Every structure is written in C-alpha cells, then in structure tokens.
Amino acid sequence: MNIIGIDVSQGESHATLITEEAEKVAFKFKHNKSGFQILNSYIRSNTIIIFETTGVYSAQLTAYLKSKKVKFYELNPLEAKLRMASLRRNKTDKNDSFKLALLVLGATQLTEIKNHCNKQSALPYDSLRILSLRYKQLIKCRTRILNFLRSSLELTFPELNQIFKKAYAVLALQVFRMYCHTDFLAGLTLKMTNRVYQFVSRRIHKGVIQSYCAQVWLAAKDSYPAVPADSLEIEIISEYCDEIESYNKEIAYIQSKLIKTAVRLDDFKVISSIPGAGQLNSALLLVVILLALIIINNSMLS
C-alpha cells in the first residue's frame, strides 16, 4: 500500500509519498489540470491519500479524487491538529504532509481506514450543505446591513428602533423609507396609515398597520433628531432598505430550496416530527447532525 499525505494550501499543495518499500518522496502540485496530472503520476491502485479539509482550498482536490475514484481520507482541522501534535513530540520533520501520511502508516485499525475512505463523500447531502452555507451567508450579510440601518435611524428617528424589533419586516422597511425622519410626519394622522397601506396591503392587515403607525406618530411628537430632514442619511437609509429587501427575497428563495431538498431525505422526516421543530430548523439541524457524524466517523483514524 502506498500512502500520500497532502498539505493543502491556496492554489497548490505539498505532498509526501511513502511507498511499500518505505521510500519517502516529496513533491508539490498546483490545483489545476497540469498539477493534478503530477499528482496522478504518483497514484497506484493501492494508494490511499490523506489530507486535512480546508474548505474551498481543498474543494478542487476533493473533486479531482472523486472523479478518478481514488481512495482518500479527509481529516477535519481539529482532529488533524491534535493527531499531528502527538507526532511532533517524536518527529523532527517539519513537513505536515509527511506527518499526515504517518497517521495512516501508524494506524492500528488500517482495515477500518480503508473501508472508511470516501465514505463521507458518498453521502447525498452535498446540495443540502451548500444551501445551508448560502443561507447562513445571506443572514450574516443582511444582519450587517441591518446594523448600518439602525445606526442611521439613531440619527434621524431613534424611536423607530424600539418600535420595530424586526427591522427586516415588510412593514418596517416601508415605514423607514417613508417616515425615517420626524419632519416627514408633520400634519399627518390617518393619511399616514393609508399611505403605508397602499404599499403593503396585500401582506398585512390594515389594523396592524394602523397600530404601528399610531406608535410612530406619537413617538415623532417627542423625538429629537440629530440631523435635518435634508441630510444624506435619508437617502442612505432608503438604500439600506432596498438592500435588505433584496436579501429578504434571496433568503426566502434559499429557504424554499433548502426545505425542498431536505424533505426528500428520510432523516428529515424523523427530525421534523419533533414538536415545534419546523421545516427550516429541521433542515438546518440535519446539516449540523450530518457534519457531526462525519467528524465522529473520522475519529476511527486512531
């Protein structure tokens, strides 16, 4: 059995081959077609490759090995760090690719390692994982803009931050666009409700709109803005609202796709049967559980 340990970096990797004859061969290759041809020249039918999962940096390598049906083993970063740390007490070689190869060479349960190779890559959950990651990215981006929006509102009409706890909601965004400064409410009473209702009437009951508008109108009477009504902050607030609305649409689309992908899996049915779980939370929880299982399975390398 030949073993190749690979230390993955951005765009390229350093590798160490340990042959059946205990020869040690160091080489490096780029993450492109010509680079993978170099890697392929060291691969035999009995070769096992081991490397640390490094997110997007190792994605090309993983895709190549899958396409070539090469046996490979991915270690999660924490496990790789702990296991290689134990080797550092006994080894002086600074090459992490060599240490990774030694993990396989020194394993006591080699049969289990062989059987486990590529096991996690065969799971039909890649789409779910990608959608979950995208969902979290969008939520993070929207939260960043929401924080900017709330900071601007503190200058123009700070009470709005207390009235609208969910600043990304349809009604909140519309009120922010129309009445983000106290001067914009001068002389308005019922007209305010009717104007907002024209934009959001299809989604929200008029009674709810009227209740919020009353709170805004009363707050404006005692509010003291830090900037005038013609400040550039007003235009910036409107732009923030547009950005958040755009994120809302994309988040809703990803949520729908995430749930549709998850409902096809038997594991989802079990998780969603928990009272109060909900479809979205069940789909996200399923991804967490699957990643945890991969880490647990990887612990067989010992």
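the 2nd protein, sequnce then structure:
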Amino acid sequence: MQSAIENNLYSNKTTLDELLYSILPVTHDVHSLTSSTQRQYVKTLSANYSTIILSPPSTSSSNIQVLAGITVANITNYTLCSNGIVYYVDQFIAAPLNVINTISTLSELNQLENIIKSQNLSNIFTATPNQTIFAPVDAAWSALNGTNVPFGTMIHDLKYHVANGTYYQQDLLNKNLTLATTFSSATVQTEAYADGRIVIIGGAYAADSMDGVADDTTLTVANIVRSDILTSSGTVIHLIDKILPADPTNVVSLVRGGDITSNTTKSRNVNALAAQTSSSATTRMFSHGLFLIVFTAIMTCYTISY
C-alpha cells in the first residue's frame, strides 16, 4: 500500500483538494451500502470535486464500487475507527478530469475525440457546466459512417447529445424524462425498464406539434451502455450505442427490433434496440495498488475481515 501511495500521489502531483475528494464528511457504514439497491451520490470534502458515487453490489460486481471520474474501484476491505471508517479500494481514487480530457481518456470514445479536436468543437461540451452528455461510442459512428457527416449537421448532432442540467443514472431510473438539449431546445426522451435498461429516444424533435407524441418514423432509440462518468465541471457523461440525429431528414439507418412501450405520463410505441450491453467497460486506471477512502478523521482503528 505504501508503494502505491508513493507511486500515485507524488508522480501525479496530487493536490490537497484532490486528496480531499477521497474523504466524505459523514460515515457510510457497510450495511447501508450493501443493502442499498440504488447508487448513492455523496458529497466529499473537496471544494472543486464535490460528488463521488457509491454503487451497491450488482449482478456484474459482488463488491461495493466507488465511481470517480473514469475510475471504477472495488471496495475490498474496511477498518472501523473510533470516529469513522476507512475503506480499502483496488484502484487509486483520482479526481475527475475536465470534459475533453475525460472523453480523450475513454477508449470507447476515440472517434468522438477525433471529431471534437479535428473540427475544433470542444466548446459544445465545455461552454456550460453541470450538463448531461450522451456520448456515442465508436461503434455508433462506424455503423452510420458518422465521421463523414457535413460540418453544419455535425454541430447540430453534437449539440443534440448535450442536455441542459445534470441527470445521473438514478434520475433516469426513477422516472421517464423529457430533456431539453442545447440544439435549439429540441428534446430527447428517456425511458427506464425493470431489467435496468435505460434508453434515450431522439431523432430531431422528440415530440411533434400535433399530439405531443414522437413520430416513430423519425425516432432513433439508443441504449445507455455505461453511465455516471463524472467530470470536474459537474457535467456527467453517459455512453450510448447509437447516434441521435438532430435533423430527421438526415437519419441514415435505424436498425431496431422488439417492442418497448409505456411511459409514466403517456403511452407511446417505439421499436427499441436489443437489451443494452453490460455497463462494465474497459477503464483506464491510475494504479493497481490500494488506496484509502477515509470517511472521517481517523483515531484508534481496528480491522474487521470483509
């Protein structure tokens, strides 16, 4: 553990504020974390990197997980102390990066990174903090030959993937939403299902002016394949497996099968994609050593097997 701390803290020039990102002001006991069925979005002592995510055990992981930026760390053990708990994790908890560096670091977003940098479009994602980005993975761009989209259309499409406000996975699971995007306030709709899937429904204007219900002929339905990637600006990134065209006339191809119906406020029928792939994804980690998440100041400690 000592070598892990030395290798990561000093080589990465970690600041005090970044260290405070691993400290929570209140105690979260093991029972409450393991018995929960929902992710917990908790504040840290860091002034600049305020939110960290505690994810309960699931079908994909038997461990409690800590989500911090691009890092997904497993809690492997813990130590009870006189006034807090120290949790041991298998990855170094680094503070979130800014939006563009986060996109650049994720191996699933190479094509999006190339588009942003080659066409100088970073301002679409960075001009305003505390937004929600639905970022198409590389396979989505390849499927529609998306990198050859005309420049003006590309700007519209990228803006259509950015929603005003921060919406975490739990917000999208709790109820179906209509979200205004940064493309002329055009909307996308979200739907969540009992099996944990979340889909984003778009295709220009997700509701027409006649009946307020989206026209199925222009819809694209994308699955969220990885959620809750935090950034330093407060913006959250969700990875999706389809491009959502901002202009209905530019929809290249919609390959959809199966039936998804229902909405909490109105019913609509759309053809949806197959069940989303596992939310687990290759993540660039900063180390393979142990690091401590300190929940309160530590005094006298004793260890309990986990």
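The first strand starts at residue 40 and ends at 43. The chain has two domains: 2-94+286-304, 99-271.
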